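User: Predict the structure for this protein chain, please.
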Amino acid sequence: MTARPQVDLSRFDNTKTFDPGAGAVKRTLWYFTNALFFLNPCFPFRSLKPMLLRLFGAKVGRGVVIHPGVNIKFPWKLSIGDHCWIGQRAWLDNLDRLTIGDHVVISQGAMIIQGSHDYKKVDYPTYTRPVVLENGSWVGAGAIVTLGVTMKSHSVLAAGSMASKDLEPYTIYQGNPAQPVRERIIDPA
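Assistant: Here is the predicted structure, written as structure tokens:
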């Protein structure tokens, strides 16, 4: 019987397939800024966070609220529109471009995952895809949006659900994988 190929993580070399988009000094400074001001649950000053993100190259609109415990991987790959809310312990693992439109909610514990590994290759290389959360979309508590997904205008990903494909506008999705369950109707009052 012939031995089957096996993963060999000693051959992993992220430099061939992934560019973090900033030098080592900027990444190190962000690491400590993220730990002190974003991940830290004891830092309650929300108004300072958009300014810090802008200092590191993020595009951040007006009225953005970022709660304590939020983890943001690379702010220089982040764009947030106006009047967005990012809940406690949300994880923006934005290894690629993350575009968040206006009036978007990312609830507590939600995850935006933009990288993975090619499990078919022996050296397990990293690959990434951009994610877009269009205007008015809502990522529910504990929900996961995976790489390459676009949540179209006013779509909703219910709590604990996982989106691995694009979500249609004004539609509520639930489950793993997320499936459409009903239309989102917004009361104009």
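The chain has one domain: 21-183.
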